[in-house]
Fold:
Amino acid sequence: MESSWQKARSWLASFSLALDRRDDDGLRSLFVEKCIWRDLLSFTWDIQTLEGKLPISQMVSSVLDHVKPCDWVLEKVTDDDAVITARFVFQTTCAKCIGHVRLVAEGCWTLLTATEALRGHEEKRGLSRELGGHPKAVQRPSEQPKLFREQPYVVIVGGSQCGVTLGARLKQLGVPCIVLEKNARPGDAWRCRYDSLRLHFQVTYCEFPYLPFPDHWPKYLSKDQMADWIDAYATAMNVAIWTNSCCKKAEWDEVTGTWTVHVDKDGTCVQLQPQHLVIATGLNGMPYVPQLQGHGSFKGVTMHSSQYISGASQRGKKTVVVGSGTSAHDICQDLWEHGADVTMIQRSATPITRVSTHQKICLQQLYSEEARASGKTSEAADLEYISMPFKLLLEKQRIAGSKLREEDADLLQRLEQVGFLLDSDPGSTNTSNYLSTGAGTYLEVGASELIADGSVKVKVGCVTAMDESAVITDDGTQLRADLVVFATGYAPLTQLIAELLGKDVARRLGRIWGLGTGRPGDAGPWEGELRNMWKTTDVDGLWLHGGNLLQNRIYSLFLALQIKARHAGIPVHIYKRPKTGFGIAGA
Structure:
């Protein structure tokens, strides 16, 4: 009887042979009917998912002359629940790549191919690190200090975790880059949030590339630890970052193929002219506060959740928090802890999961200290994570959702008893919601218990007006308040892009984020990948980088490799679905 290793080796050999011979029938025979191939640059020079034999066949036949895959080597095989999982490496004309395949009895179920490095342009690490040390003595002419010696090839707008991570990736690849951060320090976007903010994901999930967190730090970091880490990371990775520097606007010049980026740097107007512009400010635009009748007559204090710091001054006062997402829950808990009378206004049903339950059911096998102790490195965990196509990931989340609700049944029942609206959609989990709309669940760390026992009151409805001393909901209820915090989210990123780059650019760019699931806020058609993220867009020289900390670590590599290819003059043949042909990107 064939071993799992033999089966995986046989499949990989047949796959390689079918590619070499341009054997379309042989290739199709290696896949099951409902197969999915996810490619991260290695074949398509794009981030694409192909579902079914025909799309896979069409892609392969279109790209093989450019890609020329070879040197397939099987590295690891595991067998679990009638599924053989194998990891392998291979090369293309310009890249060193890694692959991951799931095999069932009928053939390949899922396939991942991903570029890890560009041949001849690898990161200078380990044996290839730069010498440094003592340069040859030369006389240097006197000159006035300059902001920069040459125009950067890339400008990154946003210098928090996304900006410094991508900046570090590009630095390692030798791509001239400047990161613009409007705050005084790279970590201030975290540092300036409310005092009680903590990460709801463990450090193994949130690590940055190159530098792991200190192993004595807690599993769940405070916002100040994260802020300090971003500052230290930017320094250690020698990221060229301009602080107190705000991008005011940018225009694309079709003739020169460059952007003109207008920067307010410490009150001085500076122009940069990169060939590539990356928006790395996160998924959101400006804070959103609803326009309410009578808002101006309210004699108390109103603020958006992004302005909230602490409830220390609210002891004995009546407070209202509008919203029921993570920030709303955290702020309610903080106000209660400081002795305030707290009411949450819940506008719509909200999914709730204990943070410990979410970790155990959804993340423990890949991202935990226990997984790491068993030998699961960040690289191995990330490969397994990205090897799961989004369609299957959402199916897994639907199964996980039932387990989450069963595990937390006692808490959910008590929340319903006090009138809290729970999202009953079986597919509504933190991951599925985040991938669809950028919103998640509230991962319970204390506020839900306060709501369940009545310490924090809940009013279901929408705020429609305010008077001198109260907020008024749509059923006419008046809630007296000294402080009203609007945890009402943010305007879409598209709005910020329209302000910075113009409405025409925002229109051409199109929708940002979401998979096309058809759920509210994520209209179809099904895309299979997140819209416009970490890949070429319909706007020349414009890229988007965002997402959570895990996505930041993983996809910053693929974005950096795409930019490096153009910087190095490597021909980039972007595969387009049938009827559109190739798009060939230049430098």
